[in-house]
Amino acid sequence: MTTGRDDGLAPVTPLFGRHGGGPAPEDESAPAAVAGAEERETTLARISSHWSGSRDTVPPEGIVDAGSDPEAEAEPEPEGLDAQRRRAENVSMHALARRGVSSGEMERLLRDRELDESVVADEVARLEGVGLLDDVQLARDLVESWQRRKGLGRQALASELRQRRLAPDAVETALDEIDGDDEQGRADEWARKRASSLRGLDRETAERRLSGYLQRRGYRGDVVRRAVDRALPRGGSRGGGVRFE
To answer: Are 51 and 63 in contact (CB under 8 A)?
Structure first.
């Protein structure tokens, strides 16, 4: 009796412990593993691209851009005094090109640029030395301009000059140079212009409104009284006044 195969072929030995000649079943976990790896690579690439495009934001912990060196970007060196002096001169020249500036205004401007105190003091002294900063002359120019354009009296002028951070002695000098007769003349002129809009009012109301108008412009009480009396004469319209009923 023959126990072997009679087809003349050698018996087949199954591999990996499987019997039979059927194909091996597919490993269902392999595609999932591949897909998971690809997803992780895609996510890491997207995050790396995002953070590499932002200079001001640090990537989340554990995510490092392989193309960057954490120690490559060193902090900038502090600005030296020579560089600060050049920057101070540039700032001051731009400011003076626009309008007149007081020494106090220039000091504040330079301090706002975070310059060293010694640099600020040196730049202001330099500008004063060459005449580009002159508080007395600036105060005089401002007084003349505000009197002409705005009709301001002494009190209003003093307030405006202090707001420009002018030196107190410069303010005092400019105000002392105001001629009393000229100030009265300006008050009279502004009172006459204003009185033309008060026609039809009773005299008491007109006086009160005109006095308030001149006081808001900074004229002293004695100057205001004279200007009102001249702009609102009693009993007629002579002298440019307003006739009241």
So the answer is: yes
Q: Are residues 208 and 163 in the same domain?
A: no
Question: What are the C-alpha distances in Å from 180 to residues 5, 48, 144, 153?
Answer: 141, 77, 14, 10
Cα 99–chain centre separation: 18
Domain, as residue range, for 221 = 179-245
For the whole model, what pTM was predicted? Answer: 0.61
124 and 166 co-located in one domain: no
For residues 222 and 188, state if they share a domain: yes
> pLDDT tens digits for 180-201?
999 999 999 999 999 989 988 9
Tokens found for residue 209:
């409104």
82-105 pLDDT per residue, tens: 999 999 999 999 999 999 999 999
**180 vs 169: CA distance, rounded Å:** 20
Among residues 218, 227, 205, which one has the least CA distance to residue 143? 218
Cβ neighbours, 10 Å, residue 228: 22
Q: What φ, ψ does residue 124 adopt, rounded to 5°?
A: -65, -45
